[in-house]
Amino acid sequence: MDSLSEMWEAACQYIKTEGGITSPVFNLWIAPLRVVNFDGEKVTLGIDNDFKFGVVEKRFNSVLEQAFFNVLGFEVQVEIILLEKEPEPEEAQAAEQNGNERGSLLINDRNNSFENFVVGKSNNYAYAAAKKVAENPGRAYNPLFIYGKSGLGKTHLLKAIENYMRSKNPEASIIYVTSENFTNDIIEHIRNSNTYELREKYRRADALLVDDIQFIAGKNSIEEEFFHTFNSLTEDGKQIVLSSDNPPDEIPKLTERLKNRFEWGLIADIQPPDFEMRMAIIKSKAESIHFEMPNNVVEYIAEQVNHNVRQLEGAIKKLQAICSLLNTAPTIEITKDAIKELTNTTQPVSVVREKILESVSYTTGVSLENITSDKRDKNIKDARQMAMYIIREMTGMSLEEIGKYFNGKTHSTVKHSIDAVANRIDRDKEFKTLVENIIKNVQEN
Question: 145 with 230: CB under 8 angstroms?
Answer without folding.
Answer: no
